[in-house]
């Protein structure tokens, strides 16, 4: 029984990961084919997951992630913020710019942790909870790069705030997280020195989360 329960859990998690890839839902038949399971086995999984609110069916019968997943995501965010703060604090103090951790929520980036440098006369005020399209700003561009398998740092200027310059790098090697670490400042940022430092901070955070 423990082995059977473990296998059922593993299959349920694989199903949820498939639904989390951003496609417009799947039919049970498509899920069965991608998971290499029988349709009865998939229907049993869907019945359990739908009962807990982790999946839902639309009027066409396609399966999507349910709102129960959001409850788990909200519980993870404070833990993620707490784990990121030491890395962000070190980055902000070293670079002299506001450091932030941004996570993807669909096509938007959400700033879940922000640390401002303590010694600069002027810095960018970047509010936790801020949202922006992934296509604008270094933080979002770094997440899009991660989706394409690229881990290099990204730069932007004036895309989210006039005069603000940003450098960000994706957080690699954490399958359950699409995120980037970055800095933003009104003063010029030397890409050759700041870029590798930001990438190192992203790798450091990845190591603490893996």
List the topology elements.
Layout: H1 2-19, H2 28-35, H3 39-51, E1 55-57, E2 63-65, H4 68-95, E3 98-105, E4 108-115, E5 131-133, H5 138-147, E6 154-157, E7 165-170, E8 179-185, H6 191-209
Structure description:
The protein is an alpha+beta fold and 210 residues long. Helix content is 46%, strand content 20%. The protein is built from six helices and eight strands. Strands 5-4-3-8-7-6 form a six-stranded antiparallel sheet. A two-stranded antiparallel sheet has the order 1-2. Helix 2 (28-35) packs across helix 3 (39-51). The radius of gyration is 20 Å and the shape is elongated. It starts with a helix and ends with a helix.
What is shown here, in short?
Helix content is 46%, strand content 20%.
- Count of helix runs: 6
Distance, first to last CA: 30 Å
Overall pLDDT, averaged?
Answer: 92
- Strand pairing plus helix content: what structural class? alpha+beta
Report low-confidence residues grouped into runs of 5 or more.
none
How would the global form be characterised?
Answer: elongated
Side-by-side strand order of the widest sheet: 5-4-3-8-7-6
Beta-strand content: 15-25%
Q: Main β-sheet: number of strands, strand sense, barrel status?
A: 6 strands, antiparallel
Oligomeric state as shown: single chain
The portion of residues assigned to helices is 40-55%
Taking all Cα atoms into account, the compactness measure Rg is 20 Å
Number of strands: 8
What's the order of the H and E elements?
HHHEEHEEEHEEEH
Q: Which descriptors would you attach to this protein?
A:
about 210 residues, alpha+beta, two-stranded antiparallel sheet, 6 helices, 8 strands
């Amino acid at each position: 029984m423990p082995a059977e329960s473990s296998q059922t859990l593993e299959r349920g998690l694989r199903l949820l990961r498939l639904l989390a890839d951003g496609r417009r839902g799947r039919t049970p038949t498509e899920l069965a084919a991608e998971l290499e399971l029988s349709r009865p086995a998939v229907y049993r999984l869907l019945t359990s997951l739908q009962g807990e609110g982790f999946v839902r069916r639309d009027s066409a019968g396609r399966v999507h992630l349910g709102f129960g997943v959001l409850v788990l995501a909200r519980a993870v965010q404070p833990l993620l913020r707490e784990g990121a703060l030491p890395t962000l604090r070190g980055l902000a103090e070293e670079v002299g710019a506001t450091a932030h951790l941004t996570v993807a929520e669909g096509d938007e980036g959400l700033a879940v942790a922000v640390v401002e440098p303590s010694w600069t006369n002027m810095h960018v005020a970047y509010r936790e909870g801020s949202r922006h399209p992934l296509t604008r700003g270094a933080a979002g561009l770094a997440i899009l790069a991660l989706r394409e398998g690229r881990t290099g740092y990204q730069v932007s200027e004036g895309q989210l705030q006039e005069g603000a310059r940003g450098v960000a790098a994706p957080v690699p090697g954490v399958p359950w997280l699409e995120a980037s670490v970055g800095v933003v400042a009104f003063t010029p940022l030397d890409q050759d020195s700041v870029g590798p430092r930001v990438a190192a901070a992203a790798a450091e955070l990845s190591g603490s989360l893996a």
